[in-house]
Amino acid sequence: MASRKKVLLKVIILGDSGVGKTSLMNQFVNRKFSNQYKATIGADFLTKELQIDDRLVTMQIWDTAGQERFQSLGVAFYRGADCCVLVMDVTSPTSFKSLESWKDEFLIQAGPRDPENFPFVVIGNKIDLENRMIQARKAQAWCQEKNNIPYFETSAKEGVNVEKAFETVARNALAREKEIDQQADFPMPIRIPQQEEQPKKDGCSC
Amino acid sequence: MNKFRPFISGTKSDDVPDCYNRVRYIRDACKILSDVYKTDKDFLNKSFDNEISKSFKDFRSSEVGKNYRSPYGSNGAPSILNRTIDELVQIHDFIDSKRKESLEQIKKIIEQAKDKQSNIRQTMTEVKENYEKAQRRLETADTNLKKFQTRSDRYQLANYDERSTELEDIRNECEQTRTLTRDIYVTEIYKIASEEHFITQNLFSQYLFEQNHFYNEICKHLSSRIPIIEQRLEDDDLTPSFHLDLIKHCSKRCDTIIAYPIEISIRLLENSLREEGLFRIAPAHNKQKKFVSELDLQLIERSSTLNELGYDPHVPANTLKQYLRGLPNCLLTSTLFEQWNQIPQLNNEQLRLERISQLLKQLPKIHYENLNYLVRFLTRVAEYSSENKMNAANLGICIGCSILYPKDQSSNTYTSGSMILELMINYY
């Protein structure tokens, strides 16, 4: 595909409340971190342009409120996502355990084509804190089990690894887009046999 | 002239009197009726209701059935299911006994129908045979007379006239007999046909009246029992509280009108006001599920503590949110949903506060008291916001959407609930 049109990637960030979804997005988009403890209301997005190899992509990053685990955000919100970022807090075992249900929730709501290979990225945030509870090995193992989801450990506060994680998000979303382009995006055309093509039957001239 | 036409119009011949088909119809109808309950003995022994109450009686005397008593009823009183099964058995026994009574009546009707049918058949055969015999005799006599009168040697016969007269007499006699038997035949048939009305009344309609009587009695009985069963369900104070209407649930509570899950969750959080991210951070999923089921069974005492139960504070905090979200009618009520939703459009805080206090007055008492209980606690949480980081704004965001949502929960309106709750906490 040689087309060089501008690409828009819809990225959704999910994870338990307080794991740092908003902070990650702010660090990535604005390179800022605020110590303010503030719950997110509803869902909102920020955009950022990114150069991936020779392509310019616009990432539309949707930050969500963590409490929405029980009150679903609705199908419309998830639909058309190109990549889903699952975030946990390495100091909270609960947030790690929740990854599974966030992933399921996403797949159910978004209903993507080929859910087995839908691009997810898992981020273990808050590695700057001392009381880490989830070892990288454990998270890595979980990701491997789930069809090799890429795993990154970040600190939104100190800006560690955030850029790299989101770059992978963009790359994987792009890769999937190409794949889907190459796959028949439309169903096979139905050929309507022309009159001339119909085999003539013996002995009947009508 | 009989205004009733024969039921089955066959070709009428001289031999078949009027009403013949009608009588046959009556006869066969009686037969069908008497065949309906041919197996009435079987039927009485094996009625459907009898079977049902028997299997439940067996179940009650089984080990499982005998041992189960409501854990909360005083002194092992029967549980709601227990009592409803008793009711079910009694009702089926009642229906069964009524059915037996009614079948006795129906049996009488059936016997009459049987008698009627065999009577008709017998009479009909008899009179018909008599008539046909007479007819045949007449035919023979007639033939004999004609033969004699046309004999070729008749003029040679000495006593021709005498013999001819004799044969004529015989023929006339036979004709009279035939007319007589035909009259009897017709009379009998008419007689039976004229019974149609009474047969319909005494057998067929009576049968339906019996049925009607039976079902009416059953209906009356059930109508008198159902309200008791419904009331028992209504009064059951073990109804799981999650997803149950708040007013229904709270009216059943004995010494308070605060919902059980709200009261217990808040009591458990009494010593956790310093917990960072209280009401924001999610607890372990399975812990929350366990706590919900414990609340549904009302297993947790007022004096229980988090330590004893082995929960962290996020479990009751989030369960409280889950409970509020699951109410069929949200805490701020769906009736006032639109009005609450308009609050963010008001220009300043003063107007909003005024509107809020107006709307609060419109809340049902139970909703108001539960909201008051909740907000009073949240105010205390907010007092510790320097430690738990949950100021009124954060609490509003995290809990607001759980106290105000539309009935179908389809659209998401976070802002109103959050703003309203934040204001209520700040100005409590």
From TrEMBL, chain A:
Q: One GO term of the cellular component aspect?
A: lysosome
Q: What is the annotated signal peptide range for this record?
A: none
Listed A to Z, the keywords are:
GTP-binding, Lipoprotein, Nucleotide-binding, Prenylation
Cell location: Late endosome membrane
Q: Which GO terms describe its molecular function?
A: GTP binding; GTPase activity
Q: Where is the composition biased (Basic and acidic residues)?
A: 197-206
Q: What is this protein called?
A: Uncharacterized protein
Could you tell me which InterPro entries the record lists for this protein? P-loop_NTPase, Small_GTP-bd, Small_GTPase
Domain of life from the UniProt record? Eukaryota
Q: Does the keyword Lipoprotein apply?
A: yes
Q: Origin organism of this chain?
A: Adineta ricciae (Rotifer)
Report if keyword Nucleotide-binding is assigned. yes
Q: Where is this region: Disordered?
A: 180-206
Q: Supply the Pfam families for this chain.
A: Ras
Q: Which family does it belong to?
A: Belongs to the small GTPase superfamily. Rab family.
Q: Which GO terms describe its biological process?
A: endosome to lysosome transport; phagosome-lysosome fusion
Instruction: Read off the Gene3D superfamilies from this record.
Output: P-loop containing nucleotide triphosphate hydrolases
TrEMBL record, chain B:
One Pfam family linked to the record? RhoGAP
Q: Which InterPro entries match?
A: AH/BAR_dom_sf, RHG17/44/SH3BP1-like, Rho_GTPase_activation_prot, RhoGAP_dom
Q: Which UniProt keywords apply?
A: Coiled coil, GTPase activation
Where would one find coiled-coil regions in this protein? Answer: 99-177
Q: Which GO terms describe its molecular function?
A: GTPase activator activity
Domain Rho-GAP positions: 244-428
**Biological processes annotated in GO:** regulation of actin cytoskeleton organization; regulation of Rac protein signal transduction; signal transduction
PROSITE patterns (alphabetical): RHOGAP
In its UniProt entry, what is this protein called?
Rho-GAP domain-containing protein
Species: Adineta ricciae
